[in-house]
Amino acid sequence: MKPWSKHWKASKKPAKQRKYTANLPLHLARKLLSTTLSNDLHNKYKKRNTPLRKGDIVKILRGQFKKRTGKVDKILTKHQRVIIEGITLTKKNGTTTPYHLHPSNLMITELNLEDKKRIKHLERKHP
């Protein structure tokens, strides 16, 4: 695996785009875990999206669990996936396993505002 390069600009080739995101350092891959805000939050903070955090309440917009809501339980930055409490698959042997969702299929309905840095980031005004 080649090291990630910050000089990469863009490519039309999907394979190169996938390679770029797969080799991203975790501090940059974190930004790809952004999710849209609900209309209420969008109007309140004047932002369209924000990175997900553990404890946020999200609504699932796509897939077999569409229209269900739940609290973010775990964020898998390396795999760019999110695990939500109560959203599980039942396997053939009867055991349950957490269902991994991509953040683009989610919408934040309530924010976890325990972190002062996050509040400051949300209320920051951009021109």
How would you portray this structure in words?
This protein is of the alpha+beta class. The protein has a domain at 37-123: Roll (SH3 type barrels). The chain contains 4 helices and 7 strands. The chain has helices at 14-22, 26-29, 39-45, 116-123; strands at residues 34-37, 49-51, 57-60, 69-76, 81-90, 96-101, 106-110. Strands 2-1-7-3-4-5-6 form a 7-stranded mixed β-sheet. The longest helix is centred in the N-terminal third of the chain and has 9 residues, at 14-22. 13% of the residues are buried. The model has no long low-confidence stretch (mean pLDDT 91).
Radius of gyration: 17 Å
Helix fraction by DSSP (H/I, runs of at least 4): 10-25%
CATH class of the domain at 37-123: Mainly Beta
Overall pLDDT level: 91
Please give a handful of descriptors for the protein shown.
127 residues, alpha+beta, SH3 type barrels, 22% helix, 31% strand
Write the topology of this structure.
Layout: H1 14-22, H2 26-29, E1 34-37, H3 39-45, E2 49-51, E3 57-60, E4 69-76, E5 81-90, E6 96-101, E7 106-110, H4 116-123
Parallel strand pairs: 1-7
Antiparallel strand pairs: 1-2, 3-4, 3-7, 4-5, 5-6
Task: Provide a quick synopsis of the model.
By secondary structure, the chain is of the alpha+beta class. The chain is built from 4 helices and 7 strands; from the N terminus they run H-H-E-H-E-E-E-E-E-E-H.
